[in-house]
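Re: [ENG-882] Designed sequences occasionally contain unexpected residues at chain ends

Forwarding the minimal case from QA. Structure tokens:
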């Protein structure tokens, strides 16, 4: 399974410590299964920060198990498959795959 994170930089090793303000669901790392949504977030963040490009980071986990993952993360179905991930879950579930500019 591939998940996406839209921002303005390549993030090979995600962490919650760079979550500089309380976000919608708290301090954590946010990913989505919807690539278009991550692209829009990357473009929005680039615009807010005055950057010329945004970055979509992609992560996978070869041993992704939905039941196991749901014990580690909080998935918000009503928000286009946004998942809020704690540092413990990041370390267990996310492996950097690649990134691209938007």
């Amino acid at each position: 399974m591939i998940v996406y994170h839209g921002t303005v930089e390549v993030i090979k090793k995600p962490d919650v410590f760079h979550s500089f303000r309380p976000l919608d669901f708290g301090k954590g790392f946010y990913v989505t299964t919807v690539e278009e949504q991550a692209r829009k977030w990357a473009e929005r963040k680039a615009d807010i920060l005055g950057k010329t490009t945004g970055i979509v980071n992609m992560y996978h986990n070869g041993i992704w198990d939905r039941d196991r993952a749901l014990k580690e993360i909080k998935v918000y179905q009503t928000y286009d498959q946004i998942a809020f991930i704690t540092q413990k879950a990041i370390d267990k579930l996310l492996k950097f795959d690649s990134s691209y500019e938007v």
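QA comment: On inspection the terminal residues look reasonable. The mean pLDDT is 77. Proposing we downgrade this to a documentation issue.
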